[in-house]
Amino acid sequence: MNVVFLFNSDHPTLGSYYGFPIMKAILETHVLQSTKRSMRVSIGDVIIHNGKKPLRINDYRIILKEIYTPTTLNLIHREKLYNSFLTSTIFCWMFQNMDIKTAQSLHEKLNIFDPYLGAMDIKFSNNIHLQVFRNSLIELFRIENGIISIFYGFNEDPENYENELLVQHGFKVKHECIGARRTIFDNFDTLNHFKRIESFEEFFTNMLDLKNEDISDIIYALEELHPKLFDVLAAASRTLERAETDEDLAQAALSGRRFLEKLADYLFPAQEKPWRDRKLGKTQYKNRIWAYITIECEKNNNMSSLETLGKETDRLIDLFNAGLHANPTKEKVEAAFCDLVKWLVAIIKINPASVRKPNLAYEEELENFLMTFLDRKSVV
pTM score, two decimals? Predict the structure, then answer.
């Protein structure tokens, strides 16, 4: 789930540079150092108006209720938040893909920190949460297995963001390029996109019989793979959810095959040169998926997964190519998609860093921008 931790930035104990003591208080809990879950962290002030037109007290109350209403996790100190909200700027740490146990543990240890106002879960399918938190805060780093990877963007140099403080509190510090994500080229920050994610989450939660935080981890992994690939898979799940006829089911199965083809293009683009006597052309997408799995398993000394994932690759591709088209039933197609999702997450987790190709999802937008720029220059 996505969880925000809230602080009164104007508390007298913090001083003018309130970000540093708040970060120090969070790190000193030593909760984040022990989590193995991959989480992206965004930080910043909660900005609710531009200051041009003063808001009435009643307006503030309405905004307070809308913004600070959790879905399932309510750890808010309501009275402290209300008093701070009317007089101070609220500072926020947002964690994407945090589990409940970690959230509760961090909350309990922060309770002794007087500027702390509490925590709650948020949903990006809620438009006010999307705009106030996800699209307004600055995405700074990833936490995973005791490593903090500080983000830097497209055509930027890595920054040493509080490196000394992070190292002092037990983290290894790296840098990670996020490419064009969170730039003008990123078209995956819309309400419709996150409603598709929510629909996918609800559908597969029921089918896979998983806890919400487990399906959240799966979706986090899938969306990081490639937002456009995720949209293909989400479209297939919508087709399957609404399927009523054999033709509907066959169409859903065809979407599964299309997803596997696009996945191969992403993981291992077609090439003319064979690899270990395997052709790797456009139509040999099974070979290209096999090549990716083999290379990553060998690179990470994880040969125990190679045979299992390889066999499952063959089975799923055969299933979506032919097996589902003979006598498709909704149960068969649903089972196939459940297996596809589990298999995909297992592939991602061989080496999560290798599947993150931050500019690939935005190639079309970048190319269109450059071509438009060049066309204008040629006219001049």
Answer: 0.87
